Amino acid sequence: LAGIRFFKTQKMIRRLFSISIFLLIALFSNTKLSAQLNHHFINSSVYIELSDSIGNISYGTGFIYLDANQAYLITAKHVIISKIKNFKPKNLLIQTYKDQNFDTVSHDISFDFEKLARDKLIIFHPKYDVVAINIGSFENKVISYKHLNSGKKSATIRGIVRSNLRKYSEVNIGNDVYVIGYPKAYGLRYIKDQFDYRKAMLRKGIIAQKFNKNKSIIIDCPVYLGYSGCPVFEISETEKYIVTKLIGIIIEYIPYESDTSIPNLKYLNNSGFSVVLPIDYLIELFK
Q: Disulfide check for 218: which of 133, 199, 209, 287 has CB 3.0–4.6 Å away?
């Protein structure tokens, strides 16, 4: 009888050990899946540069959005409608990554901005700071570009799709966020090789507030010149998975004033808080 009990005990221990191994494999599998999703989102971010015929430049960040077999470049409207006096962009340059690999060298794609505008491929939100530019058709993971000046006519580029979006009402205060942008204003001109200007840089913060009056999201994450239009991703957890969703784009930072030695002259400093335009307004462009 004792021998039978010992045998059953050993059998139970082996079964529990097998279950433990299975759970560990499942845990690490979920973690790996989450890492792959984040990697995909990083690659959707692109550098944007618009230039006119006399050398003026407006730049920012955007991302590729896929809807109804069309590929769109999404960014803040003020990146396209620059504050530069008499700015009339002729060329639209974007930098993307090959083969969905964030570690590879980016490549340039140049579009004829005037032709994109002529063919009414640029969709401005009538009220809010977001714009969608139809840059090509999309089929079998391949984008065929429209109105190219230079660059490959097609490329395998994965973008953001509708299921990756999270509306304002679903955003949760306190959750982590990642901001993925191209801060061209970083660094000093006489100090070289501090970082790779051709690659996106990530910042991490939290959702600090939902400003219901303006329907905007405030994040505790500083941004600077070049981050306008960049995607903001919220990280949340379920019982089994870590979920990454696009919640909006950066439109501005929140400043604070400090005194100077000159009367009535104030410094504007970066508070470290930034304003995110919810993804709801992007969705409105595609109704």
A: 209
- Model pLDDT for residues 154-175, shown as the tens digit of each residue: 777 778 999 999 999 999 999 9
Q: Which residues contact 199 (CB under 8 A, 6 or more apart)?
A: 102, 106
User: Residues 112, 113, 116, 117: is their CA dihedral positive or negative?
Assistant: negative
Taking CA atoms, 89 is separated from 51, 61, 80, 233, in Å, by: 5, 16, 8, 30
Alpha carbon of 26 to those of 15, 35, 36, 239, 240: distances in Å?
Answer: 17, 14, 15, 12, 9
Is 177 within 8 Å of 219 (Cβ atoms)? yes
Name the amino acid, one letter, at 129. Answer: D
**Which residue, 249, 62, 245, 76, is CA-closest to 165?**
245
Secondary structure class of 80 (helix, strand, coil): helix
- Helix or strand (DSSP H, E) at 284: helix 280-284
pLDDT tens-digit series, residues 204-238:
999 999 999 999 999 999 998 889 999 999 998 87
Instruction: Give how far the C-alpha of residue 156 lies from the chain's centroid of Cα atoms, to the nearest Å.
Output: 18
Query: What phi, psi does 15 have (nearest 5°)?
Result: -65, -45
Q: How far apart (Å, rounded) are the C-alpha atoms in residues 183 and 223?
A: 8
